[in-house]
Design goal:
Number of domains: 1
CATH topology: Arc Repressor Mutant, subunit A
Helix content: 55-70%
CATH architecture: Orthogonal Bundle
Structural class: mainly alpha
Strand order of the largest sheet: 1-2
Length: 128
């Protein structure tokens, strides 16, 4: 996958780089587990929190709850409660969350291609 020669192609011409709306996409997934939760819900559909913990692995219920709240706040995930006894809730991606899977797959392709080079650069930097 070749990258465009102008990384700003198609972006609005803003007076300051800090005003770039693309920052929003990176900020909503800046926390470690948020992108993992989005990816898991995208791959497996709506899930209950306990099922998410089991599917993801390595995430505590507390950290998952924090990630789900952030994702709901940002409009990427919808909490769906059911009027049952005992109470039940599951989480599903919104339209915005589902649309985010496309660029996330692009980032995954970038990582598959360049992760070794990034890790090698980090090792070289730390060895200085």
């Amino acid at each position: 996958m070749d990258m465009p020669t102008d990384p700003t192609a198609g972006l609005p011409d803003l007076p300051y780089t800090a005003d770039c709306r693309a920052r929003v996409a990176f900020e909503v997934l800046a926390k470690r587990w948020d992108s993992v939760v989005v990816f898991t819900l995208g791959a497996h559909g709506p899930m209950r929190p306990r099922a998410l913990v089991a599917r993801i692995g390595g995430i505590s219920p507390k950290v998952l709850n924090e990630a789900l709240r952030r994702l709901e706040y940002n409009g990427l995930v919808e909490r769906r409660p059911y009027a049952e006894a005992p109470p039940r809730v599951d989480y599903a991606l919104t339209e915005a969350g589902t649309a985010l899977l496309v660029p996330m797959r692009g980032m995954g392709a970038w990582a598959a291609r360049y992760a070794d080079a990034v890790l090698a650069a980090q090792d070289r930097y730390e060895a200085r």
